[in-house]
Amino acid sequence: MNQAPKIGLVSLGCPKALVDSERIMTTLRAQGYSFSRDYAGADIVLVNTCGFLDSAKQESLEAIGEALNENGRVIVTGCLGVEEGLIRETHPSVLAITGPHQYESVVSAVHDHLPPVPNRFVDLVPESGLKLTPRHYAYLKISEGCNNRCSFCIIPQIRGDLVSRPAAGILGEAEGLIRSGVKELLVISQDTSAYGVDIKYAESKYRGRDVKAKFYDLAKELGQLGAWTRLHYVYPYPHVDQVIELMAEGLVLPYLDIPFQHASPNVLKSMRRPANQEKTLDRIKKWRDICPDLAIRSNFIVGYPGETDADFEFLLDWLEEAEIDRAGCFKYEPVTGAPANELDGIVPDEVKEERFAQLMEVAQDVSFHRLSQKVGRTIDVIVDDVRPEENRVIARSKWDAPEIDGQVIVSKADGIKIGDIVSVTVTDNDEYDLFAEPVEK
User: Fold this and answer.
1) What is the rounded distance in angstroms from the CA atom of residue 403 to the CA atom of residue 383?
2) Residue 311 to residues 49, 191, 260: CA-CA distances in angstroms?
3) Burial letters for 293-313: b for 16+ Cβ neighbours within 10 Å, e otherwise?
4) Which of 32, 136, 148, 260, CA to CA, is 20 to 30 A from 7?
5) What are phi and psi of 332, to 5 degrees?
6) CA dihedral defined by 158, 162, 167, 170, rounded to 10 degrees?
7) What is the pTM of this model?
8) In which band, very low, low, confident or very high, does the pLDDT at 400 lie, cut at 50, 70 and 90?
C-alpha cells in the first residue's frame, strides 16, 4: 500500500479562517492525505493567511517565509491570497496561491504538486469533518462576505459581498457536530444579524419543515439542538430584539459579540458604521430588561483619524453607561486599500497609546463590577482544561467565549473532565475571571 502523502498546515487569522482550514483538511483527508504536526514530516505545507490589517499581512508573509525555510514546498491560501503580486514579490518560490474560501482551488493546487494516493479512505474521516478546535466546541460559519462598507475595512474587497448558506445546510452541519461530541456551537460570519438578506430569507427543507434563512429562525432552530449556542459578530439592528427573547428563554446563550468599534457619532459617521443612527444605549437597556443575564462583548478602535479628545471621552462615558462586560481595544492601524487612509486628523502614536491604556482601565473596572455581581451564584460552566496536579479545572461560563474572554477557575475539581458541563458556585472574581467550586451533590 502506498504511504499517504503528508501535508503541514499553518492557519492564521480569525475563527472564520479557522473554519476554512477545517474544510480544506476534511476534503484532503477524505482523498487519502494525512497531516504532519511539523515541517520536517510534511511533503508540502499549506499556509492559510490573514490580510485584514497591514500587520497581519506582515505576519502572514513571515509565516510563509518560515514554511519555505523549514520545508521549501509551500501553497498559500486565505485572505492575503488576493494580493498574489505581493506574495510573489516577497516569496517567488511558493508553489501556488489561492484566495479566501476557494476550497476547490486549494485542493486542486495540492493535487498538482502532491498527487493523492490511489486508494481513498473516506471512512477514516469523522462525520463532523476534521476540526482544529477542541472536541467540545466548534465554530459554525453561516455566511461569507459582507455588505457593509466601513471605511477602515477591506473585508468586502477580500471576501466579497454577503453570501448566506441555506438554513438546512447549517442545521445539518450543526447536528453532525453535536453527534461527534460538540457541546458548544459558536456562530460566526462577518455580519451575523444580516444572515439571509442576500437570498431574501429563502426557505429550505430541514427535517420535513421549511426553515427560513433568517437570523431569528436560525438561532431558534440551533437553540433546540441541545448544545450551547453562542452568537458572534452581531450588529445592533432592531430585529436582534427577538433573539434576546430566545436568550431569556434559555434557548441561546445570553451573550452577544457586537463590534461597536466606537460610540462617538462623529467617529461612527466617519467609519461608515451600520446602525450608527440607532439609539444603541436605549436598545442595550431594553435587552437587559428582557434578559438580565445578558453579557455583551465588543471591540473598540482608538486613535481613528479625526478622533478628538471629546470623541474619546464620549467613548469612555458610553462604555461605562453601556456596561460592556468584555471589551477589547485596538489602536487604529492603516490598512492598504481602505478609504480611511485618506482621512485627515492623524492621531499621534503616543496619543493612541494613552487612549488605549485609559480605555482598558475603564473596561477593567466595568468588567470587575459586572463579574462581582456573579459572586454567590450557582452557574453552569464548560470545562476547557484539567489540571489534576492543582486539583482545579479551567472552564468558561455562558458569558465567556473561548480564547477572547475570561475564564472560570474551579478548585476542588475531582473527577471533572474536559468538555464536561458542571454546576459551580462562584466564590470570588478579579478583573476578568471568576473563581468557583463545584456544587456538592
Assistant:
1) 13
2) 34, 26, 14
3) bbbbbbbbbbbbbbbeeebbe
4) 136
5) -55, 135
6) 10
7) 0.75
8) very high
